[in-house]
Amino acid sequence: MDDRLVVNASPLIFLGRVEHLWLLEKMSRQIMVPQSVCLEIAAGQRRDRSCKKTLGWTERYRTEDTPLPASVAGWGLGAGESQVVATALLHGGKALLDDRMGRRCAEAQGLSVIGTLGIVLLAKRLHMIPSARTLLETLRHQGLFLDDRLLEGMLIKLGE
Q1: Domains, the chain
Q2: For 67, which DSSP code?
Q3: How many angstroms separate the CA atoms of 131 and 144, rounded?
Q4: What is the pTM of this model?
Q5: CA 131, 94, 14 angle in degrees (round to 5)?
Q6: CA distance 128 to 23
Q7: What stretch of H or E contains 3?
Q8: Alpha carbons 6 and 34: distance in angstroms, whole number
Q9: Rounded distance, CA 133 to CA 20, Å?
Q10: How confident is the model over 109-131, as pLDDT tens digits?
Q11: Is residue 83 within 8 Å of 66, Cβ to Cβ?
Q12: What is the mean pLDDT of the chain?
């Protein structure tokens, strides 16, 4: 269990679509969702009805945006990714990001990073879900991009 998890929009949206936001609550003592991330989710409500429910879930975890350090601003990330990295730097914790550049920025800052795939694999290892494969296939049908070779390799390691 992580002490603090700072979460970006993509993992929230995808886990919300499949009604698995509860995994984040089981995996972390404290969840932080920067205001900019909430605004990104709110912007998607017209296209994606699940965003409204996800946005409601984030209310208890919403945090104010923090000033961006130059080491983060220079990466030219979106507002949500930038705030996840900045918030994790300021408060400590693991950054939950799917965006490749956001992950690279976070790692360059010395932060621990996990993505939606990592959350599902960890949930399986912790016996929170019966099948990582089933949940990951559902997430793929909801639009989450997962590289076939990476996915199969990870599932083999899990014995699925």
Answers
A1: 2-117 (3.40.50.1010)
A2: P
A3: 17
A4: 0.93
A5: 45
A6: 8
A7: strand 2-7
A8: 8
A9: 14
A10: 999 999 999 999 999 999 999 99
A11: yes
A12: 94
